[in-house]
Amino acid sequence: MYVDKKQANREQLFQAVLSLQTLEECIDFLTDLCTVQELAALEQRMEVARLLMNGHTYEMIEAETNARSTTISRVRKCLAKEQSGFQLAFDRLQKAERSQAH
Questions:
Q1: Under 8 Å between Cβ of 78 and 84
Q2: Where are the domains of the chain?
């Protein structure tokens, strides 16, 4: 029973994120949902992912982001997955940027 409720809660969270339609809505939702520290951790992981994808070393990433090597390693493992959420998100961001540039 507890596992089903936990899964339902997780899916509700994901559906809530998917329902957001603008950057402003996303900002409002995430700042309501997360503490300042939690949001900073998410932002740091995104930056670590971007830097890893651009070929930066662990040392460079640690110096630039203050991320611990365990965080960098975790993000690297996520990027190595066949269906990386980080990779998908960055691909879509790049595609959106290219279409806005034209």
A1: yes
A2: 1-33, 41-102
How many CB atoms lie under 10 A from the CB of residue 48?
Answer: 27
pLDDT tens digits for 31-57?
999 999 999 999 999 999 999 999 999
61 with 74: CB under 8 angstroms? Answer: no
- Residue 52 burial class via C-beta count within 10 angstroms: exposed 0-12, middle 13-18, buried 19 and up: buried
pLDDT tens-digit map of 83-99: 999 999 999 999 988 88
Residue 42: partners with Cβ closer than 8 Å, 6 or more residues away = 30, 34
Cα 102 to its chain centre, rounded Å, is 26
pTM summary value: 0.86
